[in-house]
Amino acid sequence: MSKEMKQKTVNITRSAYALASTDGENATLTMYGDIYETRPIDWWTGEPMDGDFILLDEFLRDLDEIQRCRSLTIRMNSYGGDANVANVIHNRLRELRRDGMAITCIVDGVAMSGGSLIMCAADNVEVNPSSLIMIHNAWSFFFGGYNADDLLEAAARMESYDKMQATIYQRKTGLSETEILGMMAETTYMTGREAAEKGF
């Protein structure tokens, strides 16, 4: 690898995150926003909603800019969002980790729902005593008319998402699937200290 490629600097600023590397070796990602595949649309106006959103395609393109860095520090403050998008981001970060990038996540405020899934991609997680971590079962909005078979099918999909999330939390904590699923079913909020004690 050429010295020029190794020392590529990055300075990307979006509404909900900033990604920077001044030396091409170490990168910092500040994630302060909610996680979506595309920008949400206002149901009443049909216009894109205002807000700080981490959008999947945009985020993954930016993440490619730091793939040669040796370390990544993520500063997290996210209430979550789309579980599937959070899972994709988690898996891409784990891929970077397997390729040798050291990843640290610092929870500046909250890491809830999908934010906690992304947090768990880091082998090293740092929390403040007042940080807040939340995990819960997957849920969705339903509009229109449905029969019992439709609702059972939707419930089965939700259970699959629950198992996906539990797999991520199990790898991070070493807790059993039964314990993790129980915590998710109860919508568990943890302070930084409590999350650390549980292995998050």
Report on this model:
- With about 200 residues, the protein is of the alpha/beta class.
- The protein is built from seven helices and ten strands.
- Helix 5 packs across helix 6 (about 175-185).
- The model is unreliable at about 1-5 (pLDDT under 50).
Order of helices and strands: HEEEEEHEHEHEEHHEH
Biggest pleated-sheet summary = 8 strands, mixed
Head-to-tail CA distance between termini: 35 Å
User: Rounded to an integer, what's the Rg over CA atoms?
Assistant: 18 Å
Residue-averaged pLDDT, rounded?
91
What is the number of E strands? 10
Structural class category: alpha/beta
Percent strand: 25-35%
| Poorly predicted tracts of residues | 1-6
Label the overall shape: globular
Question: How many helical stretches?
Answer: 7
Helix percentage = 25-40%
Q: What does this entry show, briefly?
A:
By secondary structure, the protein is of the alpha/beta class. The chain is built from 7 helices and 10 strands.
Features:
eight-stranded mixed β-sheet, 38% helix, two-stranded parallel sheet, 200 residues, single chain, 7 helices, alpha/beta
Q: What's the topology here?
A:
Elements: H1 3-6, E1 10-13, E2 17-21, E3 26-32, E4 34-36, E5 53-55, H2 56-64, E6 71-78, H3 83-98, E7 102-112, H4 114-119, E8 124-127, E9 132-135, H5 148-173, H6 177-185, E10 188-191, H7 192-198
Parallel strand pairs: 3-6, 4-5, 6-7, 7-8, 7-9
Antiparallel strand pairs: 1-2, 2-3, 9-10
Helix pairs in contact: 5-6
